[in-house]
Design a protein that fits this description.
Number of strands of chain A: 2
Strand content of chain A: under 5%
Helix content of chain A: over 70%
Helix content of chain C: 55-70%
Shape of chain C: globular
Oligomer: heterotrimer
Shape of chain A: globular
Number of domains of chain A: 1
Order of helices and strands of chain A: HHHHEEHHHHHHHH
Order of helices and strands of chain C: HHHHEEHHEEHHHHHHH
CATH architecture of chain C: Orthogonal Bundle
Largest sheet of chain C: 2 strands, antiparallel
Largest sheet of chain A: 2 strands, antiparallel
Structural class of chain C: mainly alpha
Distance between the termini of chain A: 39 Å
Radius of gyration of chain A: 19 Å
Strand order of the largest sheet of chain A: 1-2
Low-confidence stretches of chain C: 347-359
Largest interface: A-C, 41 and 42 residues
Mean pLDDT of chain C: 85
Strand order of the largest sheet of chain C: 1-2
Mean pLDDT of chain A: 85
CATH class of chain C: Mainly Alpha
Chain lengths: 296, 254, 359
């Protein structure tokens, strides 16, 4: 394969792998705090990029992104407090179905607010034709932003969970809810915090890839299932593994074009998910024991 | 002739050996009791016998056939029925419907015949209903038959569960702490009931904490401690067994 | 016998509604009512799975699409070029082929719609049997995700395959002649007849499930739903039973898909969309999960309204909101219903009135 094409696939895998990893991390944070899968996770990514896109015309990009992250975080908190908290007694399945309903409503709301059109964000530095060169390969500087911000998210979360009181409290809660509440930690606040964080991280991730991937109202569902695939691949709850799994899946999807027509690209990823669920639901890097040691 | 024959049965969870090389024989038409302090492995043993758990090693012979590791529904089809320590009834179904589930192993109608309401199934349904009513009447709960079990008193729910197990006409009945939660009078009735059931031709294996019940009705007693069988014999022998008394020291039993 | 009432009502409606609507000059509603019936059939299949076996499936639209696409593909497949081959000759001899001409007058040799229909149903059942075993071993969110994944795979395949018409789907699907003179097809002249066919099929489907619920197998399913361990201990082969319901659900969806396609004369990838699966779930949820009559009524009402365009642009959003509302309020709603029912039966005295899952 020609070098240029190879690099193209590589970078595409990197870009999409990063966003899948970010979605997966969001899944994991909520899963660890609540034990449920938030089907609406992809919508947070969509909201972040769409809001930022809508605001970017009227204010500096950094401000638009900051506002988008804040607003999406608020949306995540609202979703948890208004809906999920009420359904929590009904069991895991009810919460899952509720998140499905919520993802639809959020998506339709986005459609009503911003229409069907594809939107994008300005490049963080330079523009769509600027490119850097490394080892003879040309790539957009946005890729550095993506890698950098993903790394920052992972590093930031690691520090948060290890060093801050809130982070440790969340880990305590996910390991042993009752024990944690006996120590004075309010599990419900942890859940709200988890949703807020997942939403905010998702929004940030959405913003940083938007210049290259574009965004529109319906990207949520596809991201959700791929993000879940990545999360499950690395073992639900294990976000460090999610990063590696994300890159792996991103690459797999990108390079699958060699064998499979473009129209079937999604099918490859979904088949990976199905095979994974049937063969080893605890994930490639996971195990029953490891999942009980879930970190963040 | 033994209805149940265990040998070298072992099962671990993580590093913990819940059942460690347990073996004994339960004679046909005996009432065999399995006793032991909490954590001795009694419920795990039951689960190994009924197929809910598969053993790490050892064999389970039921009525002459090797059923080691067989799935519970297959074991049930061979004539073993059980009750559970925590009542496992269908809360939304009536008592009669719950007992009718017990007849599942004695009937054949499948999905297609069910959906088409094939004529021959009507006769079978009638027979299922009649046999279930017999079990219900035996346990004296006929007045509750059309009530949802979720709303019934605890003691009655236990009876429904027992009727369900009986309706399957088992060769061996496993009772998991049947007296738990019952008062003195109810326990007395239960003792009479168990003996009556045995007298109708059902071998009984019972796990129980209530010592008076155990000593009263058992033909054989098996004592477990920390997953091992430490004694077996008739009630009087067990009562005077030094080791058994030792493991129960500090435990308050009737 | 009270449990047969809804099916009987459907059958009656099949014959009574068309003249009634004709008299009130609202016969145009027959089209949407016919389509609604087919969608409800798919929901009924899902109700059996979700309500009685307690398994969620977000892939029902996938089976609907399999039935629809397989049936239409096989009945539009032109075998003229292969007319000489032995297989085609054999099929011709046994009367399993039908002749016609296409839009341009050229000869058209294709599988008889009955054969295509049966093949489509068998295909759906086979696929359900294949994926059901591993899928049903999963629990909770893994099961939801797996069925969602299945639905997405089907949608991507039908949308991306040229041979299945790609984004445009298949059209010119021939009528499906059930009996001489009676065919599932579009067209105003056949409107009343097609309405009757749809509602009779619906009535039969409902009847079969009502029978199932009160049969030995249905009892075992309910026990399975309430506690797999106890059901297994009582001799119920839980894995096989769950699989059987899964297959039944798939077959119902496939039949609905095939018949609807012949009625509409065309099929597109939109029918395999995740949103459609969500609709089926929402309808079952509103109906009360294990409530066949509830699913019937909710399904007919919601589908009819949706097809009439009452929800406008908010069509998808409505179903999403319904899902949320049901999840939030259903427990309380059901409890409310039960306590008022309880008050009623208490007033009647302890006549040992039967309660339990509604059929």
């Amino acid at each position: 394969m020609r070098g240029q094409l190879f690099l193209q696939y590589l970078f595409s895998g990197l870009i999409y792998g990063s966003i899948y990893a970010v979605v997966a991390i969001g899944f994991n944070i909520i899963y660890n705090a609540t034990g449920i899968i938030n089907f609406a996770q992809g919508e947070f990514v969509m909201l972040g990029s769409m809001i930022a896109s809508a605001l970017s015309g009227r204010m500096p990009l950094a401000l638009a992104i900051a506002a988008a992250v804040v607003l999406t975080t608020a949306a995540g908190v609202a979703v948890e407090r208004l809906f999920l908290r009420r359904v929590a007694r009904g069991g895991v399945l009810k919460m899952i179905v509720t998140t499905i309903g919520l993802s639809i409503v959020i998506r339709e709301a986005a459609l009503m607010a911003w229409g069907e059109g594809v939107r994008t964000l300005p490049f963080f530095s330079g523009n769509e034709v600027s490119s850097l060169t490394l080892l003879g390969a040309h790539f957009s500087p946005q890729i550095l932003w993506i890698v950098g911000i993903t790394a920052l998210i992972v590093a930031g979360l690691t520090l948060f969970f290890r060093l801050t009181m809130a982070g440790k409290a969340m880990r305590g809660c996910s390991a042993n809810r009752e024990g944690a509440s006996l120590c004075g930690i309010d599990p419900r606040r942890m859940v709200t915090l988890a949703f807020g964080m997942s939403a905010g991280i998702g929004a940030l991730g959405g913003c940083v890839v938007a210049p290259l991937t574009q965004t529109h109202y319906a990207i949520g569902a596809g991201l959700a299932i791929k993000g879940f695939t990545v999360a499950a691949f690395g073992g639900l709850g294990n976000s460090v593994a999610a990063v590696f799994a994300g890159l792996l899946i991103g690459m797999l999807e990108s390079f699958s074009i060699i064998l499979v027509p473009e129209a079937y690209k999604d099918v490859v990823t979904i088949c990976v998910l199905l095979i994974l669920l049937f063969a080893k639901p605890s994930g490639l890097f996971g195990s029953k024991a490891a999942s009980s040691l879930k970190e963040y | 002739m033994s209805i149940l024959s265990l040998s070298g049965l072992s099962r671990s969870f993580g590093g913990l050996k819940a059942v460690d090389g347990v073996g004994f024989e339960a004679a046909s038409l005996d009432i065999t009791a399995v006793i032991g302090p909490n954590g001795a492995g009694k419920t795990t043993l039951f689960n190994l016998i009924s197929g809910s758990l598969s053993p790490d090693s050892g064999t389970v012979l039921f009525d002459g056939s090797d059923i080691t590791g067989m799935k519970p529904f297959k074991v049930a089809r061979r004539g073993m029925a059980r009750t559970f320590q925590a009542i496992k009834l269908s809360k939304r179904m009536t008592a009669l419907e719950n007992v009718m589930i017990g007849r599942h192993v004695r009937s054949r109608a499948g999905f297609l015949s069910g959906m088409l309401a094939a004529p021959w199934t009507r006769a079978e349904e009638r027979s299922i209903r009649e046999e279930s009513m017999k079990a219900i009447e035996l346990l004296g709960i006929a007045e509750y038959r059309d009530r949802e079990t979720g709303g019934l008193p605890f003691g009655i729910q236990r009876s429904v569960e027992l009727a369900r197990a009986l309706a399957s006409e088992p060769k061996l009945l496993l009772l998991d702490e049947p007296a738990s939660g019952l008062n003195l009078r109810e326990t007395r009735l239960l003792a009479e009931l168990i003996v009556a059931i045995r007298d109708r031709g059902v071998s009984i294996l019972v796990v129980e904490h209530d010592m008076s019940l155990v000593m009263d009705i058992s033909d054989q007693i098996v004592v477990l401690s920390f997953g091992r069988r430490i004694a077996q014999g008739r009630p009087r022998e067990i009562q005077s067994n030094r080791e058994v008394i030792d493991i129960y020291l500090g435990e308050e039993d009737a | 016998m009270r449990r047969y009432a809804p099916a009987l009502v459907c059958a009656l409606c099949a014959f009574l509604l068309p003249p009634l609507l004709a008299a009130t000059k609202t016969a145009y509603l027959l089209t949407q009512l016919t389509m609604s019936a087919y969608y409800v059939l798919a929901s009924l299949g899902l109700c059996a799975l979700m309500g009685y076996a307690g398994q969620i499936s977000l892939g029902q639209a996938g089976f609907f699409a399999i039935g629809a696409y397989a049936s239409s593909f096989l009945s539009t497949l032109n075998l003229t070029k292969l007319a000489a081959s032995p297989i085609v000759r054999l099929l011709d001899l046994t009367g399993l082929l039908s002749r016609g001409s296409d839009l341009y007058g050229a000869p058209l040799l294709s599988l008889s719609p009955w054969l295509a229909f049966l093949a489509a149903i068998l295909l759906a059942a086979a696929i359900a049997a294949l994926i059901g075993t591993p899928v049903l071993r999963l629990k909770g969110h893994y099961l939801a995700m797996a069925t969602l994944g299945f639905g997405l795979v089907i949608e991507r395949i039908v949308r991306g395959s040229k041979i299945l018409g790609g984004a445009d789907g298949l059209s010119n699907v021939p009528p499906f002649t059930i009996l001489p003179g009676l065919a599932v097809a579009g067209g105003r002249s056949a409107r009343a007849a097609n309405f009757a066919i749809a509602w009779i099929v619906l009535a039969l489907g409902l009847l079969a499930l009502v029978n199932l619920v009160s049969s030995r197998a249905g009892r075992a399913l309910r026990a399975l739903h309430d506690g797999e361990e106890a059901a297994g201990a009582m001799g119920v082969d839980t894995a096989r039973y769950k699989l059987n319901v899964f297959i039944i659900g798939a077959v119902y969806a496939a039949i609905a898909g095939a018949l609807l396609t012949h009625y509409n004369g065309s099929i597109g990838p939109g029918e395999a969309n995740v949103m459609k699966s969500v609709r089926y779930v929402a309808i079952v949820a509103v109906g009360g999960m294990a409530n066949l009559t509830g699913t019937l009524v909710a399904g007919l009402a919601l589908n009819f309204l949706s097809l009439r365009g009452v929800f406008g642009r908010f069509d998808d959003a409505v179903f999403g909101l319904i899902l949320i509302a049901v999840m939030l309020f259903a427990e309380d709603g059901q409890r409310l219903l039960r306590s008022s029912l309880g008050a009623l039966t208490a007033a009647r005295g302890r006549a040992g009135r039967r309660k339990g899952p509604q059929a």
